[in-house]
């Protein structure tokens, strides 16, 4: 017997959203009790917000000081899955969720299928559509529904150690073939490290690499929530894995888990000469306390499969969604649309939080394009790399069990780098596991 899709009990456990008794509890009053910012106008209605952005309190203060009709009551309920677990608990219990919640775009379908999010097309989302890039807007929509307002994104580029490249006579690669040549050059020159790392737990990173070679892994429309198309073992993705598996087998790249303490050390001590990164990567690098002060960093476009026909991809990106538990959905939609919908708020977001905006008034400004970054020796990395990458990103469709799909991908990539199977077999096995899981959860495969 198939499990009923919208109950999603099996999905919640498998996707890392297991219920752990972390509910905020008590609905609106409990959410307000956890408010960590100053309420300027205590007579105005309050909208509760969960968000984990750095320096977000400054953004909240700016909003509250300029809005008399509504005040934001903000708390940091944890980052990523920590917050999602609490939100999942609130969904199951029917109370305890905030009015507005920060969610990564890749998990929107995972919550919309549970009737946890409000369709903002009914609350003026179309009025702000032109304020965002095409790709970012596609990431928050499904069919005609709009499940969130985009905030920041992760258009991808290549951050590299110019000093190491010059020391070993390595040219900055423009294609993946040139990238492989550079990796071999570094090894032959007796470099202490490798060109880069291919993390098996890369999740969205790996999917971005697949997408650059034409992968469209999922077909899903929230208006038909019982149907899904799965195509993760396409020829383009297999070519990507064959490429990286070859570099691994030749000892030209490492396969360390990303975002561990050891990985962070390797990023900044010269072990990796290249960091294939999203636009938030520079901020991440600068935040590492043991960074080598003598390192010379520069940014360049992500290598391409075909330099004459570049494909831009994205890694990460967050949004503001209105939850179905919001008491005043119209007022909550106003907050979702406006809290990071001004130049003043984005000045804080860019300068204090190192966010890369999906907000076109900032992206199209001369000031943003011409910003010189001391970390990159004064290079204008937005103009040189990330603005073109953001403009070229066309968006993606994510599955309603995206975390589960990522977990399964991680298992298959690990088996590949351990020599248990090749990349083609890994993706065929991934396809089979996701199809089986979808059927068990009550989906019909397209």
UniProtKB/TrEMBL annotation:
Entry keyword Lipid biosynthesis: no
Residues annotated as signal peptide: 1-24
Domain of life the protein comes from: Bacteria
InterPro entries tied to this protein: Bact_solute-bd_prot1, SBP
Database matches in SUPFAM superfamilies: Periplasmic binding protein-like II
The keyword Cytoplasm appears for this protein: no
One Pfam family it belongs to: SBP_bac_1
Keywords linked to the UniProt accession: Signal
UniProt protein name: Extracellular solute-binding protein
Record lineage: Bacteria, Bacillati, Actinomycetota, Actinomycetes, Micrococcales
């Amino acid at each position: 017997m198939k499990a009923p899709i919208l109950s999603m009990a099996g999905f919640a456990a498998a996707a890392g959203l297991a219920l752990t008794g972390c509910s905020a509890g008590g609905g609106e009053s409990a959410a307000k009790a956890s408010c960590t910012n100053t309420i300027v106008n205590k007579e105005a209605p309050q909208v509760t917000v969960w968000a984990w952005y750095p320096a977000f309190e400054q953004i909240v203060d700016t909003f509250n000081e300029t809005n008399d009709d509504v005040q934001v009551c903000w708390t940091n309920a944890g980052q990523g899955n920590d917050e999602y677990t609490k939100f999942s608990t609130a969904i199951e219990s029917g109370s305890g969720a905030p009015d507005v919640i920060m969610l990564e775009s890749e998990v929107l379908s995972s919550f919309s299928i549970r009737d946890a999010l409000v369709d903002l097309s009914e609350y003026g989302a179309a009025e702000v559509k032109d304020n965002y890039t095409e790709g970012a807007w596609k990431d928050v929509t499904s069919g005609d529904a709009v499940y969130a307002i985009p905030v920041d994104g992760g258009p991808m580029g290549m951050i590299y150690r110019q000093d190491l490249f010059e020391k070993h006579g390595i040219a900055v690669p423009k294609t993946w073939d040139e990238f492989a040549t550079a990796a071999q050059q570094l090894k032959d020159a007796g470099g202490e490290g490798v060109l880069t790392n291919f993390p098996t737990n890369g999740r969205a990173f790996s999917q971005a690499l697949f997408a650059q070679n034409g992968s469209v892994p999922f077909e899903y429309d929230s208006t038909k929530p019982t149907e899904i198309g799965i195509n993760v073992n396409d020829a383009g993705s297999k070519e990507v894995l064959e490429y990286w598996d070859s570099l691994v087998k030749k000892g030209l790249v490492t396969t360390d888990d990303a975002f561990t303490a050891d990985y962070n050390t390797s990023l900044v001590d010269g072990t990796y000469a290249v960091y294939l990164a999203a636009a938030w990567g520079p901020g991440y690098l600068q935040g590492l306390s043991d960074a080598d002060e003598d390192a010379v960093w520069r940014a360049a476009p992500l290598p391409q499969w075909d330099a004459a026909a570049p494909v831009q991809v994205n890694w990460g990106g967050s949004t503001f969604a209105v939850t179905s538990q919001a008491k005043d959905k119209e007022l909550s939609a106003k907050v979702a649309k406006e809290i990071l919908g001004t130049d003043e708020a984005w000045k804080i977001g860019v300068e204090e939080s190192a966010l890369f905006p999906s907000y076109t008034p900032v992206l199209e400004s001369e000031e943003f394009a011409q910003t010189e970054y001391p970390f990159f020796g004064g290079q204008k990395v937005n103009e040189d790399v990330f603005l073109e990458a953001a403009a070229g990103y066309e968006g993606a469709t994510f599955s309603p069990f995206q975390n589960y799909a990522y977990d399964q991908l991680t298992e298959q990539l690990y088996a590949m780098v351990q020599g248990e199977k090749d990349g083609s077999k890994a993706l065929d096995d991934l396809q089979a596991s996701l199809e089986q899981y979808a059927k068990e959860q009550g989906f019909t495969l397209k």
